[in-house]
Write a structure and sequence with these properties.
about 575 residues; alpha/beta; eight-stranded parallel sheet
Length: about 575
């Protein structure tokens, strides 16, 4: 019987003989060592801005299994380039992390793409023309829905039901303002809803009337609840189509992750967010149809339902769906004269704005949500509303104890003196939307007065100086989902048709603007361990820009999206 040692030696000799007989590989495609896995993709000859302080710039990046394997110079990639590795030579183009839009209403935006679109309308004539065209294509008696109108674009006059009554005699019409805080209903819709001279304003809302008491057709905030039982529910199929349309648009703009606050506005049903979660997002995830990542926030009133869900599945449902937290509203919007201020509106001296949620209720719900560990985000636009929410957050911290909460204020648009410092002291995330500035710049002086408008509006640099974490977004469909546009606006602050910046002292650098759309945005929703920078181990979501010159990008803030990659796979352009 042969000894085990002899058998082992013979086996080793046989293996060595087989290996020696194999053909030699080209040095470029040498098999890596056992400790160096082969990359699926290597991006090379690029100008990669990583947003990672340990290595801000690199020229090459390796991806494996959807995550960044290595980043640095091309020579450091040689041992992980092997059989099956795809190499992408960018010839010096700029690469940045995939953009995170910190505030969208994703399905609302997708559905709007399928309805009457009134964005950019700058005259009464064009407003009525678009409605007339929609009615012509609608069945008699069916609802005509849509929105996106902004009365400031045609001088500020508010639309009335009488504008469209003659062209909509047989169809109820409901059109929301771009900010979602004001809507216009025609007389057919008003009659169906039973709104008359004797109708009273609901809590947190207003039915606008003439001096003689007749409803004008305009409804503010929670007043839209009156119409919800009348307007046909959007079908599951339409919402799924809306997700596809919205996601494809996001990819075109370089957005790989969104923080989605759902179809939830003052007066809207809290059930929409949960129906969309189960019928659209979970369906798309299980069907393999998700193409961007979503971090979902749900109505604060439903916090216990989210608590139970997270107890069962955790915060990460898949590589595509993250369960973020809960959201509420403190006030309305500037454009609707319903943002809550300490001083009255300059053009409406009896109006201080609208408090849409009772402060005691906000405090109690926030306390309960926070006690479980849910992240809380609250909408506040006016200076008084922002301070009110800071008071709520400060009270919650004092009662529930200090920990890493990352409380958010959505919009933080108009702040009183000293408020940016309070944001910093309390560690509150300022989730702001740069391109709202372009919309408001033409009208804010009229609404607030020049001094208030310039000292307290869109204080990006003041917030950064107070060590506040900025998270940039769009609030789409309020304004377009367009991070590159938001970056340029935050840097330049020059509205359309203007030659000079509006409050240039609040302009920020390209680096700070990019960070607010990437790493800071990821931190703002607890996703910074996976997203926000091009660092080894993180998900390989990145964008290739059209420009070659970093200096030119720094100076002008101008570029366009050439390609968007999600998990190391090209998602745009493609079969979109």
């Amino acid at each position: 019987m042969k000894s085990p040692l002899i058998l082992v030696s013979a086996s080793v000799a046989l293996v060595l003989a087989i290996l020696a007989s194999l053909p030699r590989l080209n040095p470029k495609h040498q098999w890596p060592s056992w400790r160096s896995p082969v990359a699926d993709l290597v991006v090379k000859n690029a100008k990669i801005y990583t947003i990672d302080e340990s290595l801000p710039f690199a020229d090459s990046m390796a991806v494996r299994n959807g995550r960044i394997l290595r980043i640095g110079n091309y020579s450091s990639m040689q041992d992980i380039v092997g059989y099956g590795t795809k190499e992408l030579d960018l010839r010096g183009k700029i690469v940045v992390p995939g953009f995170i839009d910190s505030h969208v209403h994703l399905l609302s935006g997708g559905l709007q793409m399928m309805c009457v679109d009134l964005h950019g309308v700058d005259s009464k004539a064009e407003f009525t023309r678009r409605v007339k065209e929609a009615v012509r294509n609608a069945k008699q008696g069916s609802w005509v829905l849509g929105g996106g109108w902004n009365n400031d674009l045609w001088g500020g006059e508010l639309p009335l039901a009488s504008w469209i009554d003659d062209i909509t005699p047989y169809n109820p019409v409901f059109l929301y303002r771009m900010d979602g805080h004001m809507s216009l209903a025609n007389s057919v819709a008003l009659k169906l809803a039973g709104i008359t001279k004797s109708s009273e304003d609901p809590n947190g809302g207003t039915i606008m009337k003439t001096t003689s008491g007749e409803p004008t057709g305009l409804l503010f905030d929670s007043a839209v609840e009156i119409f919800l039982p009348l307007i046909p529910e959007v079908s599951v199929e339409e919402r799924r189509e809306a997700l596809q349309k919205a996601s494809n648009l996001a990819l075109m703009r370089g957005v790989t992750t969104v923080v989605d606050f759902g179809r939830y506005f003052p007066g809207a049903s809290v059930k929409h967010s949960w129906e969309d979660f189960s019928e659209v997002y979970q369906w798309a995830d299980l069907s393999g149809k998700m193409v961007i990542r979503v971090c979902l926030f749900f109505p604060l009133d439903t916090w216990s339902r989210l608590r139970d869900l997270i107890n069962n599945v955790g915060h990460t449902m898949s590589q595509w769906i993250y369960l973020g937290g809960v959201k509420a509203f403190a006030d309305g919007s500037l454009g609707s004269h319903s943002a809550l201020f300490y001083e009255p509106y300059a053009d409406e001296p009896d109006n201080y704005g609208l408090q849409v949620t009772d402060p005691e209720s906000l405090l109690n719900l926030t306390l309960a949500s926070d006690k479980f560990g849910l992240q809380v985000a609250i909408h506040a636009i006016g200076d008084r509303a922002n301070d009110l929410i800071l008071d709520v957050y400060e009270s919650v911290v004092s009662r529930n104890g200090v920990r890493d909460r990352r409380f958010r204020i959505e919009h933080a648009q108009h702040l009183a003196p000293g408020t940016p410092a309070r944001f910093g002291k309390l560690g509150i995330v300022a989730s702001v939307q740069p391109e709202h500035l372009l919309v408001d710049a033409e009208s804010v002086n009229k609404k607030l007065g020049i001094d208030r408008a310039q000292k307290g509006s869109y204080l990006f640099q003041s917030l950064l100086d107070s060590n506040v974490q900025l998270a940039f977004g769009s609030d789409w469909p309020v304004v377009d989902i367009n991070p590159l546009g938001g970056i340029k606006t935050a840097m330049k602050r020059i509205p359309p048709s203007w030659d000079i910046a509006w409050v240039p002292s609040e302009s920020i650098s390209l680096n700070d603007a990019l960070k607010a759309y990437t790493l800071s945005a990821a931190r703002a929703c607890f996703l910074d361990s996976d997203l926000g920078s091009l660092s080894p181990g993180k998900l390989a979501d990145f964008v290739i820009l059209s420009t070659y010159s970093w200096d030119n990008f720094v100076a002008k803030g101008s570029a366009s999206i050439e390609a968007t990659f999600v998990g190391g796979v090209k998602a745009y352009p493609g079969n979109l």
